[in-house]
Amino acid sequence: MNALNRASLGQARAFMRSMVEGLAAEQSAEQSSSALLFPLRFLGSSLLIAWLCCTHIVGVFPVTGATHLEARNFTDLFMRTGDIGAFVLLAMAAPRIGSLAKRPALMWTGVCASAGGTALCGFALIPHGGPPPLLACTAVLTAVGGALLFCLWAQILTRMGGTRAIVSFALSCIAAMAASLLICALRQPWALVITCLLPLASMMCARASMRLVDMSAEPAWPDQPRAHRLPWKLIALMMLAGFMSAMSGLLLSGQTGGAVHRVIATGLAGLGFLVAALVWRERCDARMMARAALPLAVIGLAALPLAQGQAGALVSVAGKLAYVWLTLFVLMMLSGIAQRSELPTLRLFAVARACSEGAILAGIVARNAIWRQGLHLDQTFLLTFMAAGTLGVLAGVLIWKSERAVNGDWGTAGSGPHAKLMLESRKAAYQRRCQLLARRFGLTERETEVLALLGRQQSRTQIERALHLSENTVKTHVRHIYRKLGVNSKSQVVAMIEGIDET
């Protein structure tokens, strides 16, 4: 046993050492290479994802009996409740907080609360039967740092280019799965120790990542804010996906394992994005996987009445995979809305996440009620649920199709007492002209991204870093753009963008 513990300790130390050494090596490499394709520090978001997953995996906590398991489930419930409450408070306080990048004291306080709360619950309150009120309060406080980190990484994501953000998300999902499975394989107490350190490590990476993106471009809250409605269509899509994700575990033989399926689905989602980016380099964006999420959800629902035994786990993974894919799509659309309209991002992301987590919690409560009643064994009930779920997916399709363009306002129209259209910022007008020029001259999605950067007088090296493309790929895209537009220089591209007839 001592040998096993020493081996686990060695693995834990190696894991932390590799993160620190990787960040240090990357810091020095950045100084010598301006064309670093993927900075390691951006994988810090994977540590947040791994923490969110591991705090809901029973095996990470030292649970030895039914009493401990009940306390663990109680903690899980209040962590989810605290998560929702934290996002609601962030949304309400967004005008006062502004950019989280400028609030390091708030961020470190919240992150330390998450690390300390995870340790207190795992090492003391759950195994020693702490009083329920103290357990509930600690669980709620533990969720605060996770909410702050999510919104901070979302703000960092907003400042990246579309391709850069997709690559970052894909690699972070894969790294999160690897980190979560490694932690689950560790012996106690090292699995819990590493889990407690994840929020701190993610915060360190976030601080380092902000040096590579222009966080100063985050819009400030104006003295008289414009009256933008929230993008309710995107929020509705996230709520539908979140509820279905929770209900996808309906056929699990026991009431554990769903968090592990979430880990697997997260890694598969990242792998899917990465493969798509390599195979369909010219057409890959967040919409591709979002389109795949809808039929995947229908397949999972159709298999529900037929799934038995291990097939129930496949349905659970499919539902969670569809949720992760759709979540990235919604985050990218929220990012686009924020950039086009020059809106502060904190309230957008906080409200969307609160609604999504609320839908997941509602799904968990409904699933537990179904288990208690034994309805998951009733074939008639499963057929009825399949039909209702399919109608929900069709509702999501109708919401999607109600937007004429994927970069539309998604329900945010209405910016004044007499206006029915969004107030268009200079950045939004510029992006619209680029999109119009791209459609007229048959540019691909990737070429449109490059066009927008060329119009901003970005150098090829800057484009490489912004879109995570190689030097030769950027040269190829620029050559294609020049040929299609019939120009020979960057200044001519700028002139065409500024002088395009929009009638």
Q: Give the number of helices.
A: 18
Beta fraction: under 5%
Overall geometry comes to globular
Total beta strand runs? 0
Q: How would you characterize the largest beta sheet? A: none
Query: Element order, helices and strands?
Result: HHHHHHHHHHHHHHHHHH
Which value, in Å, is the CA radius of gyration? 23 Å
Structural features:
mainly alpha; disordered N terminus; 503 residues; 0% strand; 73% helix
Characterize the structure shown.
With 503 residues, the protein is mostly helical. The protein is 73% helix and 0% strand. It contains 18 helices and no strands. Helix 3 (66-97) runs antiparallel to helix 12 (346-373) and helix 8 packs parallel to helix 12. The longest helix has 32 residues, at 66-97. The protein is globular and about 75 Å long.
What would a concise description of this structure say?
The protein is an all-alpha fold.
Secondary structure elements and their pairing?
Elements: H1 2-32, H2 44-54, H3 66-97, H4 104-125, H5 132-158, H6 162-185, H7 190-209, H8 232-247, H9 258-279, H10 286-303, H11 311-341, H12 346-373, H13 379-401, H14 426-441, H15 445-455, H16 460-467, H17 471-485, H18 490-499
